[in-house]
Amino acid sequence: MYAILSNIKIQVNEKIYVKDPEMTPLGKKIIENSILLIDEIGFDNFTFKKLGEKIGSNESSLYRYFENKHKLLVYLSSWYWSWMEYKLVFATTNITDPKEKLRKAITIVTEKVADDSSTEHINEAILNKIIIAEFTKTLHTKEVDQENKEGFFMIYKRVISRIVTIVNEVNPTYPYAKSLVSTIVEGSLHQHFLTDHLTTITNCNSSISTTQFYLNLTENVLR
Question: Does this UniProt record's set of keywords contain Transcription (predicted)?
Fold first, then answer.
């Protein structure tokens, strides 16, 4: 699967960036190091000035690629969900049993992520940590409705829609498939966060994974 993924260009809405960072060495350097820096200091403390100092580039050169740091975070999020969609499609394409397909899909979107060596400038394991900690900041803004109209969250919504289709195959009469899947996808990020930081209010830990919880939840809900 990873050999196939390495030959596919991850697609991100061109309205999110000023210049496609995947097209130049500097752009890739910006993406690679923004992931490392956000993981190190958090998105709230992250600035283009700090990123420029880290990569030895003028702050102004970063604005040639992204209008602001919010757009950069939306880009990273879109890249992540696009990569996740490819994983989801390749892992479930040849599975004929809907229940098995759903278990596979839930596992992919809820498990902790390992780095994919086929993408040299992006560490998916660290990017996963950023999505867990910062993803809601791409959505919980005053501009969310306009950005949604412009398609900023299309890939994220498409991941959810793909899993909704599988839920409908498992149980066509279940009336809350969209709510269930969006709860699983975003809720799993929250459970990972709780496991790492607020352990007393989650049952997920080193012995009980977030994936196990959502597999159990889905199985019981769709009976």
Answer: no
